[in-house]
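Feature request disguised as a bug report, sorry. It would help if multi-protein outputs had a clear separator. Right now it looks like this:
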Amino acid sequence: MIRLKSGKVVNLNENFDQFFHELQSEIISQSVETAHTMCDSKNDREKYQSVLLKEIMDNSIYVTHQIFELAAINKNMSKFLVTGFLFNSIVLAMPDLSEKDQKDLPPVDDHTLH
């Protein structure tokens, strides 16, 4: 299990996509809730965004420490989590491929590795 700063628990799940989505959603919702509590998003948008980003970073650091602790118990699970986070970060950062870009790609075969 992974615990956020607020105490909210996200259970580990062997389905990485489901786990990643739940963890990401909880970090965002808990960070938004804290930012709303600390400042008025309507009156001071810049401060709200700053607090929100700080909360997201703090939760990310908090989760990362737990993944390193998990490595002492289950090294393969911690490697899997770190690899999955890196993969998802890269995929989320990629711009959508347009049809023009896709015509330059080789055809997709039925042997997908993921």
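(second protein starts here, but nothing in the output says so)
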Amino acid sequence: MVEKQNKNLTRTTLLPTYTRHKLENGSTYLMPKGFPIDGFESGLRYVARENDVFVATYPKCGTTWMQSIVYLILRNGEPITSDIKLSSIFPHLEEVGKEFVANVAAMTNDSNYRLIKTHLPFDLTPFSEKSKYIYVTRNPKDCCVSFFHHTRGFPKHYDFASGKFEEYFELFLDGNVDFGDYFKNLSSWLPHKSRNNILFMSYEDLKSNPRNGILQVAKFLGETHYTKMFANDERILKAVLLHSSVSSMQKDPQRWSSARSPDQTPFVRKGTVGDWKNYFTKDQSDRMNKKIRESFAEDELNGLWTNELVLSYE
């Protein structure tokens, strides 16, 4: 069923369109209009296996960036070419379903990893102790802004090309957007961040020190990949840094996304930290601060973002 979400909104302007899926526990889960219904239902039944590598994120928290980093590491720094779509070798589980994912062949020169993307919360993600999971989080204010532009940029999925930020902000804050509630998604993964087969990273840390972040990912994927980073005057590491940069990923955008019209923001837009201050009002910032405080314990916040980054408006 496709429907418009308008909970807690007093305005009557344009709102995004989503598809509502019913889960076995009676709750519902929103997905982009146009995504195959059976893809979502099938994806939930996927059985994780040894050598599966999941990049798990809430949308717009560095998903494609991390997928690109993983791909580059496994391909010894060789970037994906302009004639290949990342989704064909790093498929989105709840979009394409378990059969497609299970049939994706190994795509690296020296490993048999199967690469899988998901935006599911931990309790819905197919889990195995033998699989690897890289979870990337991003501060919710920047995530909200990026998700707003993403939603406007895919009119066939959302019918929101002329939508306003103030409307989208209300939906995001209430968790009434596709792929569910940001705060519930992050809260579902946080208790598992210390598992040996989960690498938990923040977008902000990766942005401030991409070299260190890439090395963490390489080591997580295997000691062989980590060691290769330093060979031949760090040739592979330098290539991964170069080809995973924002400027490099902005080239040949068809690798990551379907075509967009010139009047829409590009899929790889800015990749910056703190852009939310160009969009949030003081009231919106205060309301999201309250939501952050209600959703996470103080020690959890200290391990995610500094107060200056998220909770301060100035």
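Even a blank line would do. Unrelated, but nice: The mean pLDDT is 86.
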